[in-house]
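From the methods appendix. Each design record in this collection lists the tokenized structure first, followed by the designed amino acid sequence. Records were kept in a plain field format so they could be parsed without special tools. The example shown here is representative of the layout used throughout.

RECORD:
FOLD TOKENS (252 positions):
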């Protein structure tokens, strides 16, 4: 008989256990789907959404064979080295406010990870988790069948040689005081749950969220180069993230 992670060989990377995750089912979280190896947690969550699953499903994979980034890019992570999680929500605020959800999850994730690991996790616009400019995690949000799916990948015990780019990092590499995935995952879901509740109560008004996002966003104040949809590019200083979530660049 096999169960998720039963054949693991790396003692630094124990599997998550279904029984420990049951306590995550509170607030908006209604069910947890823990898988050993799948293509992409976002795809499994999307399939459930299309099948009519209720709001609050969390899909977690120990390994992904087709982890996706944005714009057709890949997300790569060795089995159990990180957290690869998708949250499926059917928000009550109007759909015009739904694009705020990835920012909400990014803020909650940075807050939860910093609280648990003492690593100063910040955001790079739009939704990368970074430590001193190095990429620790990323988010991929999609709207499927009246549901928002926010997927997040976080490097936890990933070693330098396992990372796909020199400017990527993991909590272990940044000297985290804790690298147990279970408490990190529970803290992440708790923070997202609390912030989601507040945002829903505010009918999707992003004011509180935007203030927290601005505090955590290291892109503001930096020189940036932005590629525009028409193929051109602009350079300048990023001065703000506005109330639509757009990065404001001073090109003077
Ligand atoms: C992202 O895309 O950063 C979003 C990543 C979302 C992954 C999660 S895992 C759970 C859920 N299920 C999925 O299938 N996806 C989500 P983007 O900004 O496009 O960045 C992708 C780029 O980051 C790649 O082209 C690589 O250069 C780099 N990259 C890939 N894996 C990485 C890793 N583990 N750590 C840091 N950088 C990585």
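DESIGN:
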């Amino acid at each position: 008989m096999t169960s998720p992670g039963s054949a693991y060989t790396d003692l630094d990377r124990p599997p998550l256990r279904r029984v420990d995750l049951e306590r995550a089912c509170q607030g908006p979280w209604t069910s947890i789907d823990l898988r050993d190896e799948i293509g992409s947690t976002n795809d499994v969550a999307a399939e459930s959404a299309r099948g009519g699953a209720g709001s609050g499903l969390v899909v977690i994979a120990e390994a992904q064979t087709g982890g996706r980034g944005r714009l057709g890019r890949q997300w790569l992570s060795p089995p159990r080295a990180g957290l690869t999680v998708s949250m499926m929500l059917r928000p009550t605020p109007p759909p015009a406010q739904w694009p705020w959800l990835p920012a909400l999850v990014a803020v909650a994730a940075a807050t939860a990870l910093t609280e648990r690991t003492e690593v100063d996790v910040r955001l790079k616009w739009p939704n990368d988790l970074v430590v001193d400019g190095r990429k620790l995690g990323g988010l991929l949000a999609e709207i499927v069948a009246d549901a928002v799916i926010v997927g997040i990948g976080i490097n936890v015990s990933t070693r330098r040689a396992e990372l796909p780019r020199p400017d990527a990092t993991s909590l272990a590499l940044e000297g985290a005081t804790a690298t147990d995935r279970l408490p990190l995952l529970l803290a992440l879901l708790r923070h997202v749950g609390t912030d989601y509740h507040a945002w829903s109560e505010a009918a999707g008004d992003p004011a509180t969220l935007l203030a927290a996002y601005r505090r955590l966003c290291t892109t503001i104040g930096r020189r940036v180069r932005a590629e525009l949809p028409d193929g051109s590019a602009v350079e300048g200083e990023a001065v703000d993230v506005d109330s639509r979530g757009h990065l404001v660049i001073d090109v003077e």
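APPENDIX NOTE: The first strand starts at residue 31 and ends at 38.
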